[in-house]
């Protein structure tokens, strides 16, 4: 382990920076407090009332794990599995109920965060500071959210500032020359509430050219207008640089560098009346991804490769909705207008042959949606429909019907059926030599049935069976030409079926001690086979807080999965090629101690037993690594 003298001295000096003594913040969602969700039906309601299948990763769980980025938070939900291509900062893909990694719509405070270039969201580049909770809504959700929501919707929700203003600072040092500094402020500022964090993170990585650095910031300011209205300004920014050494079966690439920069912002106006709630949101999502790879030592332009590319995208959106309470009905109506643009400027050379790619394209999308949530006695019914028109592929209508029945005061049966779609990405449509402008949207239909029961006071157990069928899957197909015998193009050729069972358990074991266990069993049927979908996925966390001591013991297990390291020995490769790769288990441990009110020291040990494993074939996951840290007040 490498630790700089400056980082060490800063760590030892940090207690002097603490503000006046303040009580250690309690979890934002105590055990006896009703959990409110906003994603399931696009309205605030207790999670116990929604007929949808949704999991909330709470502030308490985030505090217990103290993760670097949001990937380790999203894992704490049934129905999802993640695959990271290496160490800290490398790309993280999510597979919700076995669907593709671009079939999950990701929102940041209700604003679309998926890249329009490839339709994906990289969970490895968004730092975990200033997050209140993450809501994971599963199943086809295009009836409310439109394109991309085939597998589900994930909503990352920023913290609010309340109470007197407090500031804080934090510092972490650890394995692989890791350093992290955080400044935070939270509380009343002027007439509104502020929640702010700024983070600087650096790591040397596991090997040459495996380093990572990220400068991130997050802000939310809520301004009350009268007694019933609120105006919120929300922003999140991450500017990173990542070394990309490549797969372990190849010689380390010493020059390949990726520079992702992402910013998300929105302005939200909400008005709450006795029987009506209005919400208007203007949002922007801006991305820039630079990639460069110079000639490796010992090569020449005639024998080596070079790449210099810049990918840019921007999404502007205006969303308005109103929810009316009409007797036993809650009627939600709304509309969305969205403008998306993406561009690529790439200059590459392979063995002296130039391969240059450029495009700059945009689309417009307008949509209307309506849902009626009807409650009568023990029954809840929620039919919904959305009409969406896209300037590239035309019209699409999606529907969903959800229902629930309260067996008794503590038990509920849920069921739903829905259709969903995924619009082709800009790369699928326009990338030179690969894109096909005539592509049609991928479409799906899916259903689920589940049972949930409250147990042991504030605990809960849920089990849900699901099935999805997807058609018009977009994949690359061989289309050789005389000039390019290895040419592939995007085409609507595939069908897929995913089905399985999810089990979620949240169980209080003793005062201040909880166990949270999630289990997913998954089966997929597609040709060619779907990559990186484990047959089972388990996460378990034992969370404890007693007086000054806090602890989180985490466990992850993934079953065998089909993957491809693209190093088939039959073609001279040094790997396995396509095949079934083994699963893995991993234990993590986080411990914290309140030195005094407002000052905490903690340590985190990841991959406790030093298991050698890969989540993505050919990309070695980090071995045993640790972090120690101090933080004061406003966290």
UniProtKB/TrEMBL annotation:
Per UniProt, what is the membrane topology? Answer: Multi-pass membrane protein
GO CC terms of this entry:
cell outer membrane
Instruction: Identify the residues that the record assigns to the TonB-dependent receptor plug domain, covering every copy.
Output: 47-153
Q: Which organism is it from?
A: Abditibacterium utsteinense
Feature: compositional bias, Low complexity: 297-307
Q: Which residues form the TonB-dependent receptor-like beta-barrel domain?
A: 209-608
Question: What is the protein name given in its UniProt record?
Answer: Vitamin B12 transporter
Q: Quick one: signal sequence residues?
A: 1-18
Q: Give the source's domain of life in one word.
A: Bacteria
**Localization terms from the record:** Cell outer membrane
Sequence segments annotated as region (Disordered) = 292-311
Report keywords, A-Z.
Cell outer membrane, Ion transport, Membrane, Signal, TonB box, Transmembrane, Transmembrane beta strand, Transport
- Family to which the UniProt record says this protein belongs: Belongs to the TonB-dependent receptor family.
Which biological process annotations from GO are given for this protein?
cobalamin transport; monoatomic ion transport
> Per its UniProt record, what PANTHER family does this chain match?
COLICIN I RECEPTOR-RELATED, TONB-DEPENDENT OUTER MEMBRANE RECEPTOR
Which SUPFAM superfamilies does the entry mention?
A: Porins
């Amino acid at each position: 382990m490498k630790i700089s003298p400056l980082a060490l001295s800063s760590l030892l000096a940090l207690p002097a920076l603490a503000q006046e003594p303040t009580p250690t913040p309690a979890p934002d969602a105590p055990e006896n407090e009703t959990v409110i969700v906003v994603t399931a039906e696009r309205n605030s309601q207790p999670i116990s009332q929604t007929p949808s299948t949704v999991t909330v990763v709470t502030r308490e769980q985030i505090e217990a794990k103290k993760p670097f980025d949001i990937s380790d938070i999203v894992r704490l939900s049934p129905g999802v599995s993640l695959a990271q291509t290496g160490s800290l900062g490398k790309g993280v893909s999510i597979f919700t109920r076995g669907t593709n990694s671009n079939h999950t719509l990701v929102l940041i405070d209700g604003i679309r965060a998926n890249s329009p270039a490839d339709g994906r969201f990289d969970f490895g580049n968004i730092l975990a500071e200033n997050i209140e909770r993450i809501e994971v809504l599963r199943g086809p959700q295009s009836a409310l959210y439109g394109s991309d929501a085939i597998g589900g919707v994930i909503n990352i929700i920023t913290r609010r500032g309340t109470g007197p203003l407090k500031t804080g600072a934090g510092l972490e040092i650890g394995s692989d020359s890791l350093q992290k500094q955080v400044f935070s402020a939270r509380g009343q500022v002027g007439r509104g509430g502020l929640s702010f964090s700024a983070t600087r993170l650096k790591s040397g990585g596991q090997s040459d050219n495996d380093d990572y650095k990220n400068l991130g910031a997050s802000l939310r300011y809520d301004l009350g207008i009268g007694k019933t209205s609120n105006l919120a300004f929300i922003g999140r920014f991450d500017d990173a640089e990542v070394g990309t050494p490549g797969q372990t079966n190849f010689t380390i690439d010493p020059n390949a560098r990726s520079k992702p920069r992402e910013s998300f912002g929105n302005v939200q106006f909400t008005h709450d009346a006795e029987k009506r709630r209005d919400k208007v949101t203007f949002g922007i999502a801006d991305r820039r991804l630079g990639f460069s790879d110079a000639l490796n030592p010992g090569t020449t332009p005639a024998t080596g490769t070079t790449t210099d590319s810049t990918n840019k995208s921007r999404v502007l959106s205006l969303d308005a909705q109103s929810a009316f309470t009409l007797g036993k009905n809650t009627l939600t109506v709304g509309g969305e207008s969205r403008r998306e643009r993406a561009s690529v400027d790439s200059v590459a050379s392979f063995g002296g042959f130039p391969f240059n790619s450029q495009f700059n394209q945009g689309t417009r999308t307008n949509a209307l949606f309506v849902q009626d949530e009807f409650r009568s006695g023990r029954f809840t019914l929620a039919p919904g429909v959305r009409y969406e028109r896209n300037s590239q592929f035309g019209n699409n209508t999606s529907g969903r019907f959800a229902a629930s029945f309260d067996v008794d005061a503590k038990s509920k049966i849920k069921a739903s059926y829905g259709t969903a779609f995924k619009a082709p990405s800009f790369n699928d449509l326009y990338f030179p030599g690969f894109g096909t402008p005539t592509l049609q949207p991928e479409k799906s239909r899916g259903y689920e049935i589940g049972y949930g029961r409250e147990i042991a006071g504030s605990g809960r157990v849920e089990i849900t069976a699901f099935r999805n069928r997807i058609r018009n899957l977009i994949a690359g197909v061989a289309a050789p030409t005389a000039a390019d015998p290895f040419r592939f193009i995007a085409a609507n050729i595939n069908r897929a079926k995913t089905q399985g069972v999810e089990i979620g358990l949240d169980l209080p074991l003793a005062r201040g001690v909880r166990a949270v266990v999630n289990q997913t069993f998954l089966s997929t049927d597609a040709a060619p086979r779907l990559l990186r979908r484990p047959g089972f996925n388990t996460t378990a966390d034992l969370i404890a807080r007693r007086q000054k001591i806090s602890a989180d013991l985490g466990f992850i297990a993934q079953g065998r999965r089909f993957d491809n390291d693209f190093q088939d020995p039959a073609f001279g490769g040094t790997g396995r090629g396509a095949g079934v790769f083994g699963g893995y288990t991993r234990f993590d441990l986080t411990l914290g101690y309140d030195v005094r009110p407002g000052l905490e020291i903690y340590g985190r040990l990841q991959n406790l037993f030093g298991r050698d494993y890969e989540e993505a074939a050919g990309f070695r996951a980090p071995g045993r690594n640790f972090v120690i840290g101090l933080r004061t007040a406003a966290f």
